[in-house]
Design brief:
alpha/beta, Rossmann fold, 9-stranded mixed β-sheet
Length: 489
């Protein structure tokens, strides 16, 4: 029952959906002169998607036709204006019942309503399309055409013939459908060339392409948002191809930290900075950004937990000039409320900073805050895809990982994400002579060796200071070290 293949199905001739994120998922847009089914329940955005599709024709001076069987033309144009979508150049074929239909109380005593209504409706559609020759057609909703057929088999034959007629007129067609258990749309799914499903569940809107004949597409559930500017689609991020970049070493500006790392962190690597709360993880990450700023490179911090002003004040108090870096354009601090963004939306924010503003260091503070945006989804696939994408773009990635233990049994990470890291730096508290101190060490470094010693790590008003290797102590990772020799004390 599928429609005949058209030469355009080779994928060379594309028609923009009018939504950049959707075009990316479709690898350039819809294949021209094919039919696509937009499925979803009430309020999922089907009509909005169709309005974007018709509005996008302005860029190519194509003719468009909106065939509406649900809402009236007046209602649709009003909703379009509220969404910032201009349909002034779109022709309408309004097939909704007029007020006279009710006031005249039309009834059919001999023939069924389907027999009486089908013929004039069909003729109106044929006449409008033949006269206009539209390049794009949006039919909302095809489910209403079922009522013009007395039998299911008859509907299938008629709708298949109708869709063939539209394609042979040179049109790219979008149909909407609201399937129910009583009236499923399985038959339509076999006839069309592509299917896009829209859902709104668990406080998250998603868009999924389940069929796309003649072309590849990006699979999976992609986040979507409806707002005062219409529909936005956020493609699920993929690692992508590795871009060419110079694998240079990024210094921290603190000689002892660079000694630990045998020079610093390499561009295009993923580093986890791990430790308990307040130990200095974010401060260490900003130290690398401060040094990068001296070379004129831009860095960006995404904070999920700490308030931005608190971060700026705290950094300034320890001689990290973050405000000056922001003013000079070498640092960007973005506060993210995880419950307001989906992982796909956050990934799009990161992509824009990297691709448009050429950020060289990206810090996510922290992994625990990022997890909140997942709303129960598995952390690992999302974090892996985002980190690998940044790595392939030549970005130095800093992931801040907080562990629960203040002292005691040593753990590098809590979330099972250590496999992602090329470099694993840990900070921890130690109790020495009744005083709480800090230590820093390196557990993993893929591209070079690293110093096997632990060093004392201090944060002062002058910034970060790191001491000599703590070779005179034993059991540092236990949190309560002892002296190697009695005379050392």
């Amino acid at each position: 029952m599928s429609l005949p293949s058209h030469p355009a199905s080779s994928g060379e001739n594309r028609v923009s959906s009018g939504i950049s994120g959707l075009d990316e998922i479709l690898h350039g847009g819809f294949v021209a002169e094919q039919v696509y089914l937009i499925r979803g329940g009430p309020g999922t955005g089907k009509t909005t998607l169709g309005m974007h599709f018709l509005n996008a024709a302005k860029a190519t001076d194509q003719k468009t036709l909106f065939i509406n069987l649900g809402e009236t033309e007046k209602q649709i144009r009003w909703h379009a204006l509220r969404s910032g979508i201009d349909l002034s150049d779109v022709a309408f074929l309004d097939l909704t019942p007029s007020p006279e239909f009710f006031t005249k109380a039309q009834s059919y005593n001999v023939f069924s309503p389907a027999d009486v209504e089908r013929e004039p409706t069909t003729q109106r559609i044929i006449s409008e399309i033949t006269a206009l020759h539209p390049n794009r057609i949006f039919l909302d909703a095809v489910s209403h055409l079922r009522y013009l057929s007395a039998q299911t088999f008859e509907f299938r034959r008629q709708i298949h013939s109708f869709l063939r007629f539209l394609v042979e007129q040179g049109s790219t067609v979008l149909l909407t459908s609201e399937a129910t258990e009583a009236e499923p749309d399985d038959d339509l799914q076999y006839m069309v060339d592509g299917i896009i499903e829209l859902k709104n569940a668990d406080f998250r809107r998603t868009l999924t392409v389940t069929k796309f004949r003649g072309s590849d597409f990006r699979s999976g559930n992609h986040s979507m948002r409806l707002s005062g500017v219409g529909m936005k689609v956020f493609p699920r991020i993929l690692p992508g191809e590795s871009h060419h970049f110079v694998r240079e070493t990024i210094s921290s500006g603190v000689p002892e930290v660079d000694q630990l790392l045998h020079g610093g962190l390499e561009r295009g690597t993923i580093s986890i900075i791990s430790g308990p709360t307040g130990v200095g993880k974010t401060t260490l990450g900003i130290q690398f950004m401060k040094e990068a700023a001296s070379r004129g490179e831009q860095s960006v911090i995404y904070i999920f937990e700490e308030i931005k002003d608190t971060l700026l004040d705290r950094s300034e108090s320890i001689s990290l000039p973050v405000r000056d870096m922001i003013e000079r354009g070498t640092l960007k601090v973005v506060q993210i409320e995880p419950l307001l963004y989906t992982p796909d939306e956050f990934a799009q924010i990161v992509r824009d900073d990297v691709e448009k503003y050429n950020s060289k260091i990206v810090m996510i503070d922290s992994i625990a805050g990022y997890r909140l945006s997942l709303r129960g989804e598995d952390l690992i696939p999302h974090l892996h895809a985002l980190s690998k994408y940044l790595q392939n773009m030549g970005v130095a990635v800093l992931l801040i990982n907080e562990i629960d233990q203040i002292t005691g049994d040593f753990r590098a990470t809590e979330n099972g994400v250590s496999y992602i890291a090329d470099n694993l730096i840990f900070l921890r508290y130690i109790e020495l002579l009744g005083e709480l101190r800090r230590a820093i060490g390196v557990l993993k470094k893929r591209l070079s060796g690293f110093e096997p010693f632990l060093r004392e790590f201090r944060i002062t008003s002058a910034g970060i200071t790191v001491g000599e290797p703590l070779t005179h102590l034993r059991g540092i990772l236990s949190g309560s070290p002892t002296w190697a020799n009695q005379d050392d004390e």
